[in-house]
Structure formats: C-alpha cells, structure tokens
Specification:
Blueprint lengths: L4 E6 L5 H10 L3 E6 L2 E6 L1 H10 L7 E8 L3 H9 L13 E7 L7 H20 L12 E7 L3 E7 L21 H11 L7 E3 L6 H10 L20 H13 L8 E5 L2 H13 L6 E5 L12 E5 L7 H21 L3 E7 L4 H5 L5 E7 L2 E10 L9 H4 L2
Parallel strand pairs: 5-6, 8-9, 8-11, 9-10, 11-12
Antiparallel strand pairs: 1-3, 1-4, 2-3, 4-7, 6-7, 12-14, 13-14
Amino acid sequence: MLQIFHFFAPCPRGLEPVLVQELQALEAKQISATDGGVAFSGPWPLMYKVNLHSRVASRVLWKLTERSYRNEDDLYRLARDTEWAELFAVENTIKVQVTAVRSPLRSLDFIALKVKDGICDRFRLKTGNRPSVDTREPDMRIHLYLTHKMATLYLDTSGEALFKRGYRVETGDAPIRENLAAGILSLSGWTPEQPLYDPMCGSGTFLIEAAMIARRIAPGQRRSFAFQQLRMHDDQFWQQLRAQAKAAELQSNALIYGSDVSSTVLNHAKANIEAAGLSEAIQLKQLNAADAKAPAASGVWVCNPPYGERLDEKERLASLYPQWAATLKQRFAGWNAYFLTADLDLPKFMRLKASKRTVLFNGPLECRLFEYKMVAGSNRDKTAEEAAE
C-alpha cells in the first residue's frame, strides 16, 4: 500500500485550477496541470479518495506504461507486453479508446483495433481465453494517449464518467454536466453560508451540486466504480472510506433557491432533487427570470441560460438580456451574478460591465463564465462599446 502510483484526471477545460485544489486537499503528490486535466501521484488508496470525493474530475486514469513508438505494430506490442491478467479477469468486458495529439498515425480506429488485439493476445497467452469487447457498457476502459513520439496506456478506474453522480432521472434540454456545475460554484467563491439562486434552473444541476456541497455529501457516494472489479481492489478499505464519508455528512440549512419559467422543466428539477434526497434543502418556484426577486440581501446568482444557436433564438435572447440586467440592477444589489454562455454577445446586450470573464468548455463548446458584481449604485448602463471591452 506504500507503493506510489501515477494517475491522470481529465476535467472540463478551464477547471484545471479547481481540480488542483481538490487534489491538494486530498494530499496528492506531483500534481501537474495540463490542458484538460491534472496528473498526480500517490498510494493506491488515494485513487479511491479522488473517485469518491472529486467534484470536478471526469475520470481517474491509472497510468500503466509509457513508451516511444513509430507505427501501429509498436502500439500492438505495447499492449501485448502489459500483464493485463494481473489487473483484471478475462471475464471482464473491455473497450479501447484512443486520443492523439500531433500523432503521425492517422486512423485512430485501426490503432484501437491493434491495441485490442494486443490485450486479447496477452490474455490468451496467460489464460487460454480472451476478453469480450463491449463498446456501450464495458467493465474495463483502456485509454491510449498518443503524442508525436510517445504512447501512454491508462486503465480507467472510474468506469462511468464521474459527473454521473447517480441522481439524474430527468435531463431536459442540454443540461449542464454535474462536474462543470460544481466547478463553476467553486469559481464563484460561493460558500454554504451564502444564499444561492439559479433563476433558470433547468433540471436543477447547480442547485443539487450546491446542496451536496453544503451537506458535505461525497459526489461518488451513490455509485459504483470500475476499480471495484480490479484484482488488487481492497473492498474492506473501500467500505470504510464510504462509511467515513457518510458519517461526515451534515444536515445543512443552506439557503438554496431555484426557479424556471417552464412547469415541465421544474418537474424535471423536482424529480432529480427528490432522487438526490435533497427536497428539504432546495426551494423551487415557477417564475420568469425577469420577474425574479432577491431572496436575501446578498448572495450568488448563477445560471446557464439558453445559448441561441439559431438566428431566431439569438434575436429572442437579445431582447431578454436587457431584462435580466434590469432585474439584477433593480432587485439584486449586493449580489454577485454568474452567467455561463457560449453567446459572447451577452455583455453587449446586457449593457453591464463584466468584472471577470473565465473561459470554460461545456463539452466541446467554448463558453464564457461572466461575473457581475452588483454593488448598489455602481452598475450604470454602459454603451455597447464599453460593454464589449
């Protein structure tokens, strides 16, 4: 258990600093952020803790081996020379995924096939049998990462992506992923002592993630993980870790509010909140965002408004932005407001000067998190040129 292992945790791009802070709190070592994730190292139990407690990581990948390569045959040998039978059983299904950055090799599908063949040939040599492939719900996900010269093999210890907490029963249209929502709450500086309000709450992701933070509910508490099927899994330690996390939960009285103009969307939010066991922690109301009133003298407003991909949607949003700005100025003085959007015209039409613009990615979509500090009397209307600075 004192052996040091090396891991890589992907996360939504833009949230790498938040993930670094989480890993530091969990006492990870050799922490190194890169675009789209963070490398770190530590003893085997650290991997359990990151899977259980990280709110922003997408997965925890265990680094198995790394080698230079020139062609597909080199990658086949890399996989064939790895002792897979010592890691998991031949009865486990597998899936191979390949990511390449500036690799001279062109066909990622052919590379994945060669790596799969290498894994199966190693199993056949050791056990006389080969594992089956399952591209939908595999037991084991093997990740190959290629640069222009180096190939790295990872084994995914998480299984399903970590943003799948286990509480989402209704999705609605374009829901924000749970780990991106949790990361935005961290970037906003919100703490459970402050009121939180999402006036366009959709399926309730910001609200649920905030309530879980306030109650110190470990995000991985309700789900299973791929590492539970590994040969070196220590289930007694894992159950102790889960029990400790459960014992640390609080009955918080945090003030968390949400609203949406759509009754259908609110029903989705209610279903997810009930599935998360947080009905008593969150207050919902059917309301147009332009009609919102501050539930307290100060707090954090956070939302993920529609992006408006079609022209008619953009025109409709352009008429809504000034209404939201007026609501903030008239009724939310003393609040900090955060808008996650892919529409870079939002500040121009809101005619408020954003105090901060953070680049984030919602999946492959480049977005901005705009921050507005609504200090009473300080947010005068700006010209379009000033707002676009």
